[in-house]
Every structure is written in structure tokens, then in C-alpha cells.
Amino acid sequence: MANLGVMMTLAHKILCNNSPSPRHDFQRGFTLLEIVITMVIISVLLGSAALFFVGSSDEAIEKLSRETQLLAKKTMRSAKDQQRAYSIIITSKSVWAEPEMLNLEEAETSTIAIPVDKDITISYLLDEETGWQRITNNDSPFVWSFSQTGLCEPLTLRFENNIAVDEVTFHPLTAGKLIDEN
């Protein structure tokens, strides 16, 4: 048994150190396998972190798009129910709805605004001739009108950041998302 231990120790010294002379572990360095495994672990961690940040950006755009769609439907219903024109006001910082021609009492009531993240830009398309119009901080707000009957202008909104884009086309009769039949 003692001979087996001596042989294994000698084999370890020869295979690991490439020399039969004793060397200290701190002089040995790293093997290629250790470096590759470390690189794989770092790559996996960086990849999962990148997916987390990309996913959160997508979620912010999807949330803003979904909330704007709900706001459009509620605004259409309010216009029909109250037989009164409404508007959805879109700025680079928020989106909200309010009745047109507010009187003093209504102006004091607060409206719920949908906040827009600072890295998200909103563009609108009314028709192909004018093309996409980006809403910036310096612009006056874009006003999307709903008549007393609930009809609205046909509109396409684009929500985008550096990573994701979401376009929503609203139907003028339902203020709902227009589904492409192609």
C-alpha cells in the first residue's frame, strides 16, 4: 500500500508540475481548463444580466402600450356615455384623458396620468403623407380627439427605446387595437 501512495505522489508531481522537482502551489498558475470554466461562468452571468435589463425595457414599453389602449377604450366610453367630446393628451412625459372644454369645477379635479419612462419615445402617425411625428419635450402636446359619439381619429402610436419597439393602430369606431388580417 505504501508503494501505491508513493507512486501516486510521484505521478501527480510529474503530471501536474511537468517536473519531478517539488514546486509550490502558488507558482503553478492556472490550467487552460480552469480558465475556460471561469470564462463560461462569467459569460453565463453577463448573459443573464443582459436578458434581465432587456426584459425590463420590453415590459415598460408593453405596459405603456397596454395602458394607453385601455385609456383609449375608457375615453371612448366616457364620450359616448356623457355625450361629450373628450381628448387624450400625449406628451413626452405622460398620457392622460380629459373632457374638452373643461369648466372651473372640472379643471380642479385631478385626472390620472400614465407616466412615460424617460428612455421611451412616443411617435404618432395620422396618415402616410405626413409620416411619423415624434413627441419631444419641446413640442406642444399631441391631442387625440374623441367626438360625443365616441368616434376618434384613426391613429397609430409607436412606443420605442433603444431595445424595443411597439406600434399600435387604433380603430376609429372602437378605439381598440386594429388587428392586421394579413
Describe this structure in a few short sentences.
The chain has helices at residues 2-17, 32-82, 104-108, and strands spanning 86-90, 94-99, 114-115, 121-125, 133-135, 142-146, 155-160, 165-170. With 182 residues, the protein is α+β, with helices and mostly antiparallel strands. The termini are far apart.
Kindly describe this structure:
The chain crosses the membrane at residues 32-54. It holds the Pfam family N_methyl. It comes from Rubritalea spongiae. InterPro entries: N_methyl_site (IPR012902), Pilin-like (IPR045584). Keywords: Membrane, Transmembrane, Transmembrane helix. This protein is of the alpha+beta class and 182 residues long. It has three helices and eight strands, in the order H-H-E-E-H-E-E-E-E-E-E. The protein has helices spanning 2-17, 32-82, 104-108; strands at 86-90, 94-99, 114-115, 121-125, 133-135, 142-146, 155-160, 165-170. The strands form two sheets. A four-stranded antiparallel sheet has the order 3-2-1-6, with helices on one face. A hairpin with a 7-residue loop joins strand 4 and strand 5 (133-135). The longest helix is centred in the first third of the chain and has 51 residues, at 32-82. The mean pLDDT is 78.
